[in-house]
Amino acid sequence: MPRVGQRPVARPDRLRTRRCLSCGYAGPELQGDRGRITFRCPACAEDLYARPARSYAEMEGLDLLLEPPGAARPAWRARMRAVRSGLIAAKRHWLTQTLSQTFVMTATLALLALVIVLAGEFAAAN
Question: What is the three-class DSSP state of 7?
Fold first, then answer.
């Protein structure tokens, strides 16, 4: 990490720099569109087709959160719609899980009640 004065200074592009997952090589061959057509790491000859070079942001899923410099930010309303649709999907998932568990419990209790009634009738008949 480069140093300026007493404090270390992090490069702002380090999250988006693609690196070989085997040796950590981050040369220009792995960056941008060239990184998608490079199939061998120039440093260690790792097979990048099977295990492509990725940036830290790509590995952690931050590439969706971090916007590239100069990119137009989506409108405020569009972001709110995306958040709202995510919340609605989460509520639907929760509701589906709750209803399916309720159905299973109700069916189990109904079968248990039927077994108890049949066992009582069988005992009374003998």
Answer: strand
- Dihedral of CA 70/71/75/80: which sign? negative
Q: pTM for the whole thing?
A: 0.42
Q: Judge whether 63 and 57 are in contact, CB under 8 Å.
A: yes
Q: Residues 38, 18: contact at Cβ < 8 Å? A: no
CA distances from 60 to 32, 48, 49, 56, 115 (A): 18, 19, 20, 6, 53
Q: How many CB atoms lie within 10 A of CB 38?
A: 20
Strand, helix or coil for residue 101: helix
Measured CA to CA in angstroms, residue 110 lies from 10, 101, 104 at distances of: 64, 14, 10
Name the amino acid, one letter, at 126: N
More confident residue, 26 or 9: 26
Segment 2-13, tens digit of pLDDT: 555 566 555 667
